[in-house]
């Protein structure tokens, strides 16, 4: 978004209310009678939801307000539909700048921007945090694999002679990439998705009519032994190119698929690699929480009932 979090006053309130909204939405999805808006309102759920949404929308509006000020101060948008929509002295290319340029060109209104910022702010922090947590957990549980990832990272850094890694360097972390994919297979940050059928489908001989909401449970899909033999075993080699070619393209969906897939997929993977690289080059991870101790709770994002604990030992 182009705004520093420490310049805002309400990140904790935002985070806490996001969790509350998640619980409310899960409650509604698990209790069919709450799908009715009138019943949802009469039983007091809508009032709770609105109370949680107020500070969340306030937080995102402050992001927009601050960026709008800096946008007009530092960037002169070019009223054009071409890819080069920026000009000016500082050349900042935050996503929010694109939305503000679209607003200036009457392609989106204020509430439209707020909705987009809400989406990216939520999807861009909670899911990635869940993914990073579970990847660190998997690395701590598998010391041999952790060491191999560390050696690959160290090798790339040595080639750079101490210079910071660039985007192209992260694409060379081939083994690390396979490890991350295997972690996301076992512990997808978004454990389920939903789709509305646009035409009647047949499932196991039964017709499913148009308009039906279909829930796809990614957590279970990734444990289908037909595509992932011995599915609970942690094995990054499942993502060797020759292994991937054998599988159905929709057997692995950590970022969903099709026209409604995750718009931030490439950024999320780059963010994950950046964090993993920074941590492993400085610390060795040892397990405290065991795999058999994991108890997952129903939520919009994959969460455990208790905090996951890992020991960090500084490398010498």
Automatic annotation (TrEMBL):
* Any one Pfam family match given in the protein's UniProt record, by short name: p450
Q: Which residues bind heme?
A: 262
Cofactors that this protein relies on: heme
Q: Which InterPro entries match?
A: Cyt_P450, Cyt_P450_CS, Cyt_P450_E_grp-I, Cyt_P450_sf, Cytochrome_P450_Monoox
Which keywords are on file for this protein?
Heme, Iron, Metal-binding, Monooxygenase, Oxidoreductase
GO molecular function term, any single one: oxidoreductase activity, acting on paired donors, with incorporation or reduction of molecular oxygen
Say yes or no: keyword Transmembrane present: no
What is the documented function of this protein? Answer: May be involved in the metabolism of insect hormones and in the breakdown of synthetic insecticides.
What family classification does the UniProt entry report for this protein?
Answer: Belongs to the cytochrome P450 family.
Name used for this protein in its record: Uncharacterized protein
């Amino acid at each position: 978004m182009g705004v520093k979090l420490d310049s805002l006053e309400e990140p904790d309130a935002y985070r806490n209310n996001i969790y509350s909204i998640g619980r409310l939405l899960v409650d509604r999805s698990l209790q069919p009678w709450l799908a009715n808006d009138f019943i949802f309102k009469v039983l007091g759920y809508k009032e709770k939801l609105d109370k949680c949404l107020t500070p969340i929308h306030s937080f995102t509006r402050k992001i927009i307000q601050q960026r709008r000020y800096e946008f007009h101060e530092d960037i002169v948008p070019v009223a054009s539909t071409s890819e080069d929509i920026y000009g000016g002295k500082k050349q900042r290319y935050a996503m929010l700048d694109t939305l503000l340029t679209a607003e200036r060109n009457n392609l989106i209104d204020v509430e439209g921007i707020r909705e987009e910022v809400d989406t990216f702010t939520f999807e861009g922090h909670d899911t990635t945090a869940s993914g990073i947590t579970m990847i660190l957990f998997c690395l701590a549980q598998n010391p041999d694999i952790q060491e191999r990832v560390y050696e690959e990272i160290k090798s790339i850094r040595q080639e750079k002679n101490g210079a910071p890694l660039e985007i192209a360097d992260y694409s060379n972390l081939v083994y690390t990439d396979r490890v991350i994919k295997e972690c996301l297979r076992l512990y997808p940050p978004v454990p389920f998705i939903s789709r509305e059928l646009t035409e009647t489908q047949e499932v196991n001989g039964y017709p499913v009519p148009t308009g039906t909401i279909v829930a796809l449970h990614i957590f279970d899909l990734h444990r289908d032994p037909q595509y992932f033999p011995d599915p609970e075993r942690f094995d990054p080699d499942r993502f060797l190119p020759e292994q991937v070619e054998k599988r159905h393209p929709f057997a692995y969906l950590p970022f969903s698929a099709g026209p409604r897939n995750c718009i931030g997929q490439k950024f999320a993977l780059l963010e994950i690699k950046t964090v993993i690289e920074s941590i492993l080059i400085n610390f060795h991870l040892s397990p405290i929480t065991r795999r058999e101790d994991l108890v997952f709770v129903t939520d919009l994002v994959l969460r455990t009932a208790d905090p996951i604990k890992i020991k960090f030992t500084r490398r010498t």
